[in-house]
Write a structure and sequence with these properties.
Structural class: mainly beta
Strand order of the largest sheet: 1-26-25-24-23
Subcellular location: Nucleus
Number of strands: 29
Protein name: Nuclear pore complex protein NUP43
GO cellular component, one term: nuclear pore outer ring
Keywords: Nucleus, Repeat, WD repeat
Organism: Linum trigynum
Helix content: under 10%
């Protein structure tokens, strides 16, 4: 049975009156300031927007700092200490300075942009920026293309083109030369830029019990063990893939999970992230144990799955939770975008 709630956890719900597609914390420019970048879509006006909001520490309200109007609806949003990157459903990619975006001005602008038929055809499904001073962004699309974009000048180069025979839905950097992609059939692909042409390792999506139909929606890579990644997708599925044991995925929830614990969700898992704040995991941590995984789902669950432990439900909403982000400078705080035109902030004790 799942552990419901955590004593003294505070939840603040902030109505927005627009669809909240995605949300990310921005790196704080001062210890007393928290800011978030939010992808909105106004269904009445059929207008997308990307906005930076500061969080009032006392009222827990969001105040608009600056905004930008993208060419079409935002499909993916990621941030590092230096940059934020947004992709669109029309196939363009835009990179912003994370600090300049927080300057109090009516509008902010992209540092570089990439688009055109040679880049992506249609929706870009996933993007990721490599931190630690790297100047490249990776993008994947439903068109089967994998591209690298230089943050300095917006130039790009093609890593792979599936010519529409494959489709990629998620991507995550593992090192300055390696990244992992995901797509249909619960499949994962490991790429190494030092060995171009194709993926150097693949997981075929064999999660047991004959189940291979499903889509990977989100990927994260272990912060200190780059050979281990986390994936979330259809039917409440969350699993870890270790390159050292490529045919033996560690299933944490959903398809093929043989543990006695009742899963928190059996619907689409839209986002997964490793997280190190959960106290129970740190008390029982061992070198062979995975870090706990936080996830959000279509059936409105924000939860934590800790290997060998009962899952923990942090938030249960009557609508989908589209995305979430853990504040890396204050990991007790989690911000979520809700389908019913709201933002939720979860403050853990």
């Amino acid at each position: 049975m799942a552990v419901i709630g955590i004593p003294q956890t505070q939840i603040h719900r902030l109505p927005q009156y627009r669809y909240v597609d995605s949300i990310r914390w921005l790196p704080s420019v001062s210890p007393l300031q928290q800011s978030a970048i939010v992808a909105f879509f106004d269904t009445d006006a059929d207008t997308p927007s990307l906005e930076v909001h500061s969080l009032d520490q006392e009222s827990r309200s969001l105040d608009l700092v600056s905004s930008w109007v993208p060419p079409s609806r935002i499909s993916s949003l990621k941030c590092t200490q230096a940059f934020a990157v947004a992709s669109t459903v029309s196939g363009s990619l835009h990179v912003f300075s994370a600090t300049e975006a927080q300057d109090p001005s009516p509008a902010f602008r992209s540092v570089v942009s990439a688009d055109g038929k040679g880049f992506h055809v249609g929706r870009i499904a996933g993007v990721d920026l490599m931190g630690c001073g790297s100047n490249e962004c990776v993008s994947v699309g439903e068109d089967g293309r994998v591209n690298l974009v230089r943050v300095l000048d917006g130039s790009y180069r093609k890593v792979f083109d599936g010519n529409g025979l494959v489709s990629y839905t998620a991507v995550k950097w593992a090192s300055p030369t390696e990244f992992v992609t995901g797509g249909c059939g619960f499949g994962l692909q490991w790429w190494d830029l030092r060995r171009p042409g194709s993926a150097v390792a693949q997981f075929k999506g064999n999660l047991g019990k004959g189940r291979t139909s499903g889509i990977i929606h989100s990927i994260d890579v272990h912060p200190s063990r780059k050979h281990t990644c986390l994936a979330g997708g259809s039917a409440g599925t969350v699993f870890a893939w270790d390159l050292r044991y490529q045919h033996q995925p560690i299933i944490l929830s959903g398809t093929g999970n043989d543990t006695a614990a009742q899963p928190l969700s059996e619907s689409e898992v839209w986002e997964v992230q490793y997280e190190s704040y959960t106290k129970s995991s740190m008390n029982n941590f061992s070198s062979s144990k995975l870090l706990p995984a936080m996830f959000c789902s279509e059936d409105g669950i924000l939860g934590v799955i800790d290997q060998g432990e009962e899952p923990t439900e942090l938030l249960a909403e009557p609508c989908a939770i589209n995305s979430f982000d853990i504040d890396r400078q204050n990991p007790s705080e989690v911000i979520c975008s809700l389908e019913w035109e709201s933002i939720a902030i979860v403050s853990r004790p």
